[in-house]
Specification:
Number of strands: 11
Structural class: alpha/beta
CATH architecture of the largest domain: 3-Layer(aba) Sandwich
CATH topology of the largest domain: Rossmann fold
Length: 336
């Protein structure tokens, strides 16, 4: 097999949890040309990965938004003459693109125009019986690769990203391993711990442990937390690339967040992680989405919702509110 295309075009955490599969494929095909196709927002996660020969950026929101642009992208891909494409996240667009690119072996899951694939598995991710990274490995069986149960993430650390972080730390008088990073937002409201809780936690960390806090996430949410907090916290939200975020995490004592993508970057660079989960729907729960490696603390309360309605919650996400500020603070103390 001369040329292999790995495809993951969704979110930050999803792409980070696909990095173990990259090394597994490389180990089994040491002489092959291996490319990774991803979106512009997640390129930093794989750009610089030593097990890849090429990064292909697919920009579905801008450069490759309409039908003509997608056809042209497919033709460009066709000229690269890949033997195999492995599609880790089912997508109508991606299935069409790999079909039009005339890639002989197209591997994926049995949903979203599965007839465009040559090989597929039933999509059982909703059962949430194992990590997303291990579900990714299942697709590799079509290449004759047995499951390695790998939990080894990879995130490239780039020297050119270090200067900005060092300058920011100096500007805000932040010392390595003497501050925490909080991601205070997520991609949907069913995964967001209340702003007043983050604000109270910032105060406790400073007053009782002399720990400063750096905020990242959506700017509006971070500003809300800052306004509620009695202790000033540097707000780096929407100012850092993912490459720079990796450096910031390396310098921090630990990372605190709800179930959101940046926690997987922190885990990948070796920073301890405290994660607050709420939802109990198996496919959205911690068995599938908690961090894969390193020191971590998982806080998860089951308040008895059966079934969990996740995004359609009628209880104002009381499962998240069930995890109290004091519990998170006590978890932090274990890392001091």
């Amino acid at each position: 097999m001369k040329k292999i295309l790995l495809i993951r075009t969704d979110r930050i955490g999803d792409v980070v949890l696909t990095t173990p599969s990259i090394k597994i494929v490389r180990d089994h095909f040491p002489q092959s040309h291996i490319a990774f196709m991803t979106g512009p927002q997640t390129r930093d996660i794989v750009d610089g990965n030593p097990y890849l020969n090429e990064i292909i950026v697919y920009d579905k929101k801008r450069a490759h938004k309409n039908i003509i642009q997608n056809i042209l992208f497919s033709l460009k891909l066709k000229r690269k003459k890949f033997d195999t494409a492995i599609i880790f996240n089912p997508s109508n667009r991606i299935h069409w693109i790999t079909y039009l690119a005339n890639i002989p072996m197209r591997i994926g899951y049995s949903r979203k125009l599965k007839f465009l694939l040559t090989h597929f598995l039933p999509d059982k991710k909703h059962e949430g019986l194992k990590s997303e990274a291990l579900y990714n490995e299942d697709l590799l069986t079509f290449l004759g690769i047995s499951s390695a149960l790998s939990r080894k993430l990879y995130f490239p650390i780039k020297k050119e990203s270090q200067t900005k972080i060092q300058d920011l730390l100096k500007k805000h008088n932040l010392h390595e391993s003497h501050f925490v990073v909080m991601t205070v937002s997520a991609s949907d409201r069913s995964r967001i711990w209340p702003s007043q809780n983050f604000a109270h936690l910032i105060q406790l960390l400073y007053e009782k442990l002399n720990l400063k806090t750096v905020l990242i996430g959506h700017l509006k949410k971070s500003q809300e937390v800052c306004a509620l907090s009695k202790i000033a916290a540097p707000n780096f939200s929407e100012t850092l690339s993912l490459a720079e975020l990796g450096i910031l995490f390396q310098k921090a004592l630990l990372h605190i967040s709800s179930d959101t993508g940046p926690m997987h970057i922190a885990s990948a660079v070796g920073t301890p992680v405290i994660t607050i989960f709420g939802r109990t729907l198996p496919g959205l729960g911690p068995k599938r989405w908690s961090v894969l490696q390193g020191k971590n603390t998982l806080l998860h309360k089951n308040i008895g919702c059966n079934p969990c309605l996740a995004y359609l919650c009628q209880l104002d996400f009381d499962c998240f509110k069930a995890t109290k500020v004091e519990e998170v603070f006590n978890a932090v103390r274990q890392y001091i």
